[in-house]
Design brief:
23% strand; binds S-adenosyl-L-homocysteine; Rossmann fold; 297 residues
């Protein structure tokens, strides 16, 4: 599309569009307002929890379509689901190609990752790469894990609905949202105030995950007053497994944690607590940001 066409297309669609109840932004860039409106709309819907909450926006290609079809009213329909929601399309592609094709089979994981809008957990400038097969930077020098890593960890957790899960390293909040959509009661701990506050706003105000419990503290010490936990998942790598976390495991609990004597080089370890003793399993090498704290680096 050249500049003139883009300009003309933009003129045909200068107000937010309303399509099947969801608000659409007229031009590319997302706004908090649209996210809030969509979240509110979804909240009103029956069964809102099982529905995805996505911020749709009109892409230049869709603007051209609107222009060509001469639909300038504030209500319009888009030709295919793919055009109406490019992120949903990218998400389904990610689930098929990066997860199912590589052996992720847990239906809870596949369902959750096909509905959590990963693009909302990264900076706006990176949203079009949110479903790529790689980790992405988030604020404060931290990262959101590659989709496959999130899925593998969630699958190795062998989660059942209703379980109490402690997550160390809230970061962007993406994994917390996935765990929540898998049916867990999530307690998530972050040590960096900026991440904690921004992510809390996103998860609770924008996305409506009001039952996620978020904490600002040193996660290497766990959350003693809420222990024990059925599952513990650590999204950062430390030199050893914090004893505090082992102590907060319920009978028959499982913990997933990257462990390594060298920074940014860990093994993904799965710990089982069976009859009061601990069994460890190695699930290959991995790279996570540092687990910083009293029982970490
Ligand atoms: N699960 C996150 C991944 C975030 S990266 C997501 O989906 O985006 C790891 C996070 O662990 C970072 O935000 C980092 O600040 C946090 N972290 C590191 N050490 C921690 C500690 N001791 N307690 C709590 N969070 C910690």
């Amino acid at each position: 599309m050249n500049k003139k066409e883009f300009h003309n297309a933009k003129k045909t669609c200068t107000k937010p569009q309303k399509i099947e109840g969801l608000c659409y932004e007229p031009l590319g860039m997302p706004t908090q307002r649209v996210m809030r409106l969509n979240a509110q709309y979804q909240m009103q819907e029956e069964n809102a929890k099982s529905k995805e909450i996505i911020r749709h926006f009109i892409t230049p290609a869709e603007l051209l379509h609107l222009k060509n079809s001469k639909k300038t009213a504030s209500y319009c329909t888009l030709p295919t689901e793919k055009q109406a929601d490019i992120y949903k399309y990218s998400r389904n592609k990610m689930v098929q190609e990066q997860l199912i094709n590589r052996g992720i089979t847990d239906p809870l994981v596949l369902h959750a990752m096909s509905i959590v809008p990963r693009h909302l957990f990264v900076n706006e400038a990176l949203q079009n790469t949110a479903y790529d097969d790689r980790p992405l930077p988030i604020a404060c020098g931290q990262t959101i894990s590659q989709p496959y890593t999130v899925a593998l960890m969630c699958q190795l957790l062998m989660l059942e609905k209703g379980m109490k899960v402690l997550e160390i390293g809230t970061g962007s909040g993406y994994q917390a949202a996935v765990l929540r959509e898998m049916g867990a009661k999530v307690f998530s701990v972050e040590r960096i105030p900026e991440l904690y506050h921004n992510t809390k706003k996103l998860l609770k105000n924008t996305l409506g995950y009001t039952d996620l419990l978020l904490f600002l503290s040193d996660g290497t010490l766990g959350l003693k007053s809420f222990a024990p936990f059925d599952r513990i998942i650590v999204a950062a790598g430390g030199p050893t497994i914090p004893q505090a976390l082992k102590d907060q495991m319920e009978h028959n609990a499982i913990m997933l944690i990257p462990v390594g004597g060298e920074k940014m080089r860990q093994s993904l370890v799965r710990v089982f607590k069976i009859n009061g003793s601990y069994k460890e399993e190695n699930h290959g090498s991995t790279t996570f940001v540092d687990l910083v704290g009293k029982q970490g680096w």
